[in-house]
Amino acid sequence: MRTFSQLFLAEWIKLRKSSIWLLIFVSPLLSAVLESIESLGKVDPELKWLYIIGDMVSLHGIFFLPLLAGVFAAFVCRYEHESGGWKQLLALPVRRTTVYLVKFSVVLLLIMGTQLIFLAAMLSVGAAQGVSATIPWEVLLRSTFGGFIATLPLVALQLAISVGWTSFAAPLAINVILTIPNVLIINSADYGPYYPWAQPYLAMMPGMKNSYRALNVSFETLMWVIVGGFLLFFFSGLTYFNRKEI
User: Fold this and answer.
1) Is 192 exposed, middle or buried (0-12, 13-18, 19+ CB in 10 A)?
2) Which of 16, 21, 62, 89 has its C-alpha lying 20 to 30 A from 118's C-alpha?
3) CA distances from residue 127 to 52, 134, 209 in whole angstroms, order as listed
4) Positions in the chain whose pLDDT score sits under 70
């Protein structure tokens, strides 16, 4: 029986031979460039870091991070949907659960890479803007890793869709369509915290007194909602994959 590490290495080789991993640089670099040309001259020096983080998260968290989660999830299933790849893979001595976990882990690795580069981009913009205030490491790290955790339900949902849909473009189209309403939903206290595409932004956006600029939702409450959504989508997708006829 093939182990997790062997399957993960096989996925990593496929990933390395493609150019999809280059997408982890797109959002951080674009956000950094746009923020670097913003003028912070009239902003209170003690608030400059919050402005930088908030501005960069607005582009990254609302649009790019949810879109990337869908792109990466669709990509890790692309080869198996071509030319009977699922049958060839599952004909090997492998457990379906292990295959699913490996693909999920690869997507999370790409998302984590994106978030770490985004953290470096925020620090670089602060240095380029000459911000003299102390770096708010707690806010930066909470934003970076909170955004990563907040993508878990979305990655689980998108992976389930990508596994079930043989088309590479269809899951991406669905993801784009459901990402666009973020502009409105992030401002809704009733729907925002429960909408998987809005959760990355809400988890990353810095606020005052442990609340968020868009919603008065505590970080802890948001995390509980995210964990619940992740468990629901992940185990539903895993159950579907284990029972799916290939």
Assistant:
1) buried
2) 16
3) 11, 11, 26
4) 1-2, 207-217
